[in-house]
Specification:
The structure holds 2 protein chains of 2 kinds. Chain A is an alpha/beta fold. Chain A has 11 helices and 10 strands. Chain B is of the alpha/beta class. In chain B, the strands form 3 sheets. Chain B has a 7-stranded mixed sheet, sandwiched between helices. A 6-stranded mixed sheet of chain B has the order 10-12-11-14-15-16, with helices on both faces. In chain B, strands 1-8 form a two-stranded antiparallel ribbon. In chain B, helix 1 crosses helix 2. Chain B is globular, with a radius of gyration of 21 Å. The chains are: A alpha/beta, B alpha/beta. At the A-B interface, strand 1, strand 2, helix 3 and helix 5 of A face strand 3, helix 3, helix 4 and strand 9 of B.
């Protein structure tokens, strides 16, 4: 179905760059997000990956999932490694040591590798203006190490390090607003996306690919294992996150905010929260508190879009 | 022709002469003059290189991994806390076999905060899989940096190399140094020709993880590479000697042949020890000095052949062993002796911590066995002596 404001791809690239034999969990929306994004980035791409789910499921020696040049160095430094690659490509092309081509460097990390331990390296790379794209695959916790909370874990969620109990609601702080932090670096392109909305994702990857400078994509990647949902519902929960306003789809081009898919009227967040094991313990008052916050943030986002 | 030049500036010129293509660095005292001057060289268009002003040493080493993986000849420099912040990535750079060269301007570690020279930083990084060279003077810094790239990029090595120079007492000193011509360096050091690079034309996966079935084998292969690098290092040093007229060896000796007593030391302190040796000689006493130009891979064989028939060995170190029975260099040498079933009289002295001046007199006192009479409070389980501690 055609949605207003979203570019439709009738010629989806058939080539795959995240290919065979990866070990992602059943129903993983993260590997789907990477697969879709890489189709648009295309062949002339160098991938840098932080330690995390995607790295672990894709490269047990001597095998690899990737048909693109791919490098993993450590957990917190994907953006810094990408800086070195981008710099090296530039100088080697200048010196005619390699052909002059439009090669995009793409750094990929999870929400922990981005919003916690990798934040400094990311900020440095964005500030320096390297021509690269940073993708945060946000599954809202440290899923690979056993579902521990990150600063991107939503308020109220149960994780193994933020368990609910007599004196705890679970995760006690609100999700860190990473896209806003990226926007604060005044980079050409920032967007949120979700593989439940593949055409929206394609369109944003295309813009990120073309940006003349750093671009940042924040992709909500539903994790059935960590969210305690059935494995066939990852796409559904991605849609619900968008339709309830929990995860709005928007982009910021040169500072200009634009909502790319308006879900108004928003569905009540209860529809999103119910059925997710990580929120099972929440009572109505607590859900109402979350609803208040989501509504307020949605209104804030709308007001930023109206400032044009 | 020699000219008076600050050693840090000479180090940056050596990197320029090596035609480095990527530099990622974060400033830290006393490394700053090296990166500042390199930034100027790049800014003035005297060197075709990308200079990445990273936001930390952790990112400096990470960016160096990225640029080296892409095929650019890569250089950086750091000191002390910076080296510690890089620590994690040091292992990865060597494990991924990136021929990065780093000038490490040795400095004391916090706390207490000290910007001055000692070997606390490099000793904490000694098992990171890097080849480690130590310089006694500015000429060696220049020569070692140029040799370091030849060693690092040799297909039989492919390991990162750290060129150590003492903070301030070497880095900030103006010395007469002979800077080789670009033509000579070009002849000695061919352009970097990487084995694998990150490029879409030939996609490779770098930095994959190993299951328990493979990790040991991968680490063993890496160990063989650093052990086997010693012969290549010697060859590079020989070739450098032939071409530039300055011959280096992994283990250098001074007046050791006639001496029953020898000092073993690393870095610029060797010059003070040599002065002490000369003074002792004037009094008709014979002492020798063994200096390790190469610290990793540890030149066990070469060291053993010098030390094996000595009566007394005094190992001089610039790091506090922190609960160990002796300092790291002493432990390594005694381990070499033990594996060769040789028990000998060895003493361990800790000197010059946090930039404390060490005068030749201290070494004369060590020779005479009077170095610690006044200051050392006996502590059980500790064999080393710290020179010059005030009560």
């Amino acid at each position: 179905m055609r949605q207003k404001g979203i570019e439709i791809y009738t010629d989806n690239p058939e080539e795959e760059f995240a290919v065979s034999g990866h070990r992602a969990c059943q129903g993983c929306a993260e590997i789907l997000a990477v697969r879709l994004a890489l189709k648009i980035f295309g062949k002339n791409t160098i991938l840098v990956m932080a330690t995390g789910c995607m790295e672990i499921i894709s490269t047990p020696l001597p095998t690899t999932t990737w048909t693109l040049p791919w490098i993993h160095v450590a957990f917190e430094n994907a953006a810094a490694v990408a800086s070195g690659i981008e710099g090296a490509l530039k100088i080697l092309m200048e010196k005619n040591k390699i052909p002059r081509e439009d090669i995009r460097v793409v750094a990929i990390a999870g929400d922990g590798g981005t919003s916690d331990i990798g934040l400094q390296a990311l900020s440095g790379a964005l500030e320096r203006g390297h021509k690269f794209t940073y993708i945060c695959l946000d599954n809202e916790a440290y899923m690979n190490t056993g579902i521990q909370r990150s600063s991107a874990t939503p308020y109220g969620a149960s994780t193994t390090t933020s368990p609910p109990g007599k004196k705890s609601i679970g995760q006690a702080t609100w999700k860190k607003d990473m896209p806003k932090i990226a926007v604060a670096h005044n980079i050409p392109y920032v967007a949120t996306a979700c593989p439940s909305y593949p055409f929206d994702l394609f369109s944003k990857v295309k813009k990120a690919r073309m940006a003349d400078g750093p671009s940042y994509l924040h992709i909500l990647s539903v994790c059935p294992t960590g969210w305690r949902i059935p494995t066939d519902l990852a796409i559904e929960y991605g849609k619900l996150a968008v339709r309830t306003g929990v995860f709005p789809l928007y982009e910021v081009e040169n500072g200009q905010y634009k909502i790319t898919h308006s879900p108004e009227p928003l569905k009540p967040i209860k529809e999103y929260i119910k059925g997710q094991g990580r929120f099972r313990h929440l009572n109505d008052d607590q859900i109402a508190k979350i609803q208040g916050r989501v509504t307020k943030e949605w209104d804030n986002l709308k007001s930023r879009c109206e400032l044009k | 022709m020699k000219k008076g030049i600050e050693v840090s500036i000479a180090a940056s010129i050596a990197a320029k002469l090596a035609r480095v293509e990527a530099i990622a660095a974060y400033p830290i005292t006393p490394q700053t003059h090296i990166v500042e001057h390199l930034a100027e060289i790049v800014a003035n268009g005297e060197l075709d290189a990308v200079y990445i002003n990273v936001e930390s040493e952790h990112s400096a080493m990470s960016a160096c991994c990225g640029s080296s993986a892409t095929g650019a000849r890569t250089f950086t420099s750091t000191s002390a806390q910076g080296l510690e912040l890089m620590h994690e990535i040091l292992f990865i750079a060597s494990g991924m076999r990136f021929p990065i060269v780093m000038a490490t301007v040795n400095r004391a570690l916090s706390s207490p905060l000290s910007i001055w020279g000692d070997h606390s930083d490099v000793m904490a990084a000694r098992d990171t899989g890097w080849i480690m060279l130590f310089c006694e003077n500015g000429q060696e810094v220049v020569d070692m940096i140029i040799m370091a790239f030849r060693i690092a990029e040799d297909r039989g090595v492919l390991l990162p190399v750290m060129v150590n120079l003492d903070g301030f007492s070497l880095s900030h000193v103006i010395e007469p140094i002979e800077l080789p011509s670009q033509m000579m360096v070009d002849k000695f050091l061919p352009p970097y020709s990487p084995l694998y690079t990150l490029h879409p034309n030939k996609p490779v996966t770098m930095g994959a993880y190993a299951m328990p079935e493979l990790y040991t084998e991968a680490k063993y292969a890496q160990e063989m590479a650093i052990i086997n690098s010693k012969e290549i290092i010697k060859n590079v040093m020989d070739e450098f000697g032939k071409q530039f007229g300055r011959q280096y060896k992994p283990v250098e000796t001074y007046n050791t042949e006639n001496a029953d007593f020898v000092f073993v030391a690393l870095g610029s302190i060797g010059e003070n020890i040599k002065t002490a040796i000369d003074e002792l000689k004037g009094e008709g006493k014979n002492a020798g000095l063994v200096q390790l130009r190469l610290f990793r891979p540890f030149p066990s064989e070469e060291l053993f052949s010098v030390l094996k028939d000595k009566k007394r060995v005094a190992v001089i170190e610039r790091v506090m062993p922190a609960g160990a029975p002796n300092g790291p260099l002493f432990q390594e040498i005694s381990s070499v002796m033990c594996t060769n079933s040789l028990l000998m009289h060895m003493e361990n002295y800790i000197v010059g911590l946090g930039g404390r001046d060490v005068l030749p007199e201290s070494f004369i006192d060590i020779f005479n066995g009077t170095a610690c009479e006044k200051s050392t409070v006996p502590i059980r389980d500790k064999n080393f002596k710290v020179i010059g501690v005030r009560g």
